[in-house]
Specification:
Helix content is 72%, strand content 2%. The chain is mostly helical and 403 residues long. The protein has a two-stranded antiparallel sheet with strand order 1-2. Strand 1 and strand 2 form a beta hairpin. The longest helix has 30 residues. The protein is globular, with a radius of gyration of 21 Å. The two termini are 19 Å apart. The model has no long low-confidence stretch (mean pLDDT 88).
Length: 403
């Protein structure tokens, strides 16, 4: 790494790690020069400026590892935003959920390597353990609900159902936030039981969230991991393991899916999302516009859809969300992104360095599986976590000649 100012890049590295440690700071929101922002975005921008000032020009122009899919997704989002009902909301989402996380991803490409990785790992580890403890204490009413939660009827309903909330807007966000890091750290630290034991804190928080999508994600990941290792021994064992997993999952779904309650509302949301995609297949409807479109649907079809309206802030599916937010171009970009990640993991040679990339690959898979039931990317902290794992894959899937 060609560095003009080692002290500045060290500061930038610590700032980049602090972003992972202090992800919840995006709740500290304010307006700067009439632009809504938050403390986490300011930290990322400062880190990016310090990094840019520390590098030579040839390093600044170095290609971003996922440049093509990023360009396609951003063009799709910008095009869809041009026709959005609320362009201010659309542009705010592009800034907070795409541009800022991608800037942070670029900072990671310049600051993340084998020497600095422990700093980022420790930041993530402390983060999830503390979030887990906060969730447990809030569930036990040692820590009270936040003021905004006390004024939201839907959140109070979740609390009455015995589901933990932590500081999030929904119990489901606890699972979406914690599962990918827990998967990554669990693989990374294994078999260091002294480190793994503290992961019981976020695991307990995931359980207290009562997120069925989270439970299904963890179960499917466990089945896939078992099949992966069985496949190395004998293919028939992997097939049998997969069949047993499917049977267990089917039984769980039979016991836990209720087509007369919340699951009907989820189906209604998906139905509207598919309908909107068929009506706007090329450009979508723009970022952050789904709730308004859903509201208009309820005007014509009251009853079930009106009951689902408070929960229809997004389509509860990462593909539906991306397609409606950025159109077909964004979906194509997302497909290329997945292809590039898989290509890098397949080409990575088996060594200590690539093991880190494989651990991040399982975390990315968790995001994708969970994304079939929820919008696992479309939130400030979730977007940053997603890019954190994608950059780890890009950096550590390249085998070093010394290994």
């Amino acid at each position: 790494m060609l560095i003009q100012n080692p002290k500045a890049i060290k500061i930038s590295t610590y700032l980049a790690a602090a972003v992972i440690l202090l992800l919840p700071l995006y709740y500290v929101r304010f307006t700067l020069f009439r632009i809504p922002t938050n403390l986490l975005e300011i930290m990322i921008l400062v880190s990016a400026c310090v990094t840019a000032a520390s590098l030579p020009k040839e390093k600044l122009t170095q290609s971003f590892p996922y440049l093509l899919p990023v360009v396609l997704i951003l063009i799709g989002l910008a095009s869809a935003s041009w026709f959005a009902f609320d362009k201010r909301v659309a542009l705010g989402i592009i800034k907070g959920w795409f541009v800022i996380p991608i800037i942070y991803a670029w900072v990671l490409t310049q600051t993340l390597d084998k020497k600095t990785l422990p700093l980022f790992i420790n930041a993530l580890y402390i983060n999830v353990v503390l979030v887990g403890l906060y969730t447990i204490l809030q569930y036990l009413m040692v820590i009270p609900l936040l003021p905004y939660q006390l004024t939201d009827p839907s959140l109070l309903q979740y609390a009455d159902q015995g589901r933990a909330l932590a500081f999030f807007e929904s119990p489901n966000f606890i699972a979406m936030y914690l599962i990918p890091p827990v998967v990554f750290l669990g693989i990374y630290f294994y078999p260091n039981w002294q480190k793994l034991v503290f992961l019981l804190s976020p695991m307990a928080a995931i359980y207290l969230s009562r997120s069925r999508a989270g439970f299904i994600t963890l179960f499917l990941l466990a089945v896939l991991v078992i099949m992966y290792y069985l496949l190395k021994r004998k293919r028939i064992y992997a097939v049998l393991g997969g069949l047993v997993g499917i049977l267990i999952l089917g039984y769980y779904l039979k016991l836990n899916i209720n087509f007369e309650g919340a699951d009907t509302l989820r189906l209604a949301i998906w139905n509207v999302a598919v309908s909107l995609i068929s009506q706007h297949p090329l450009l979508g409807i723009g970022p952050g516009q789904f709730h308004e479109y859903f509201r208009q649907t309820t005007l014509l079809t009251p009853g079930l859809y009106q009951a689902a309206l408070p929960y229809a802030l997004h389509p509860h599916n990462i593909i539906f969300s991306l397609w409606l937010s950025g159109g077909l171009l964004a979906v194509v970009g997302f497909g290329i992104l997945i292809f590039e990640v898989v290509r890098r993991l397949i080409r990575a040679k088996s060594n200590k360095t690539s093991f880190i990339a494989f651990a991040a690959g399982w975390a990315a898979l968790a995001i994708l599986i969970h994304g079939m039931f929820d919008s696992t990317y479309f939130k400030n902290d979730l977007a940053i976590l997603a890019w954190f794992f994608l950059i780890i894959i890009a950096v550590f899937s390249v085998a070093e000649s010394s290994e």
